Amino acid sequence: MTTPRPLAESDVPAVASIYAHYVEKSVATFDEIPPGVEDWRAKAAAIIGAGLPFLVTEEDGEVTGFAYAGQFRPKPAYRHTAEDSIYLAPGATGRGLGRLLLGELVERAARAGVRQMVAVVADGGDPASLRLHTAFGFEQAGRLRSVGFKHGRWIDTILLQRALDAPTTR
């Protein structure tokens, strides 16, 4: 199986494409218009420039998924708290890539000085992200009801949190 590695410049178009799938076909993200490649270049530069991890997996030279840790909120006091994001190529789900990405992301974020990691999971009917985060020691910290409206319906989000000095599971 593939090992997650840091994002390379050449990976950015694939990241944009993978994310566009979720924007257009799911409620996993509340974006309604897919960000372009240049938007992703800027986002990746900001994340990496802040010393936070942005990882990809690949198989046979094709990016199969990505994950990154971004500062949870822009205010300075949040600088030690990150929010994780994980997206897999549509044909790459169900093979353990999310587990690989989240495990490596948690470890690298901890080394980067992140003390708390937050996940904001859309409660859109697919429990995979919730199960993945729970397997890595994330605990539910709350629910925001009907905070997103996408594809003709209201969507809740589930907030999960994990201290990064806690042990990980694989």
Automatic annotation (TrEMBL):
Record organism: Nonomuraea roseoviolacea subsp. carminata
Organism lineage string: Bacteria, Bacillati, Actinomycetota, Actinomycetes, Streptosporangiales
Keywords from the named record: Acyltransferase, Transferase
GO molecular function: phosphinothricin N-acetyltransferase activity
Domain N-acetyltransferase: 2-165
PROSITE patterns: GNAT
InterPro entries membership: Acyl_CoA_acyltransferase (IPR016181), GNAT_dom (IPR000182)
Membrane-crossing residue ranges in chain numbering: none
Designated name of the protein: Phosphinothricin acetyltransferase
EC numbers: 2.3.1.183
Segments forming a coiled coil: none
Pfam families: Acetyltransf_1
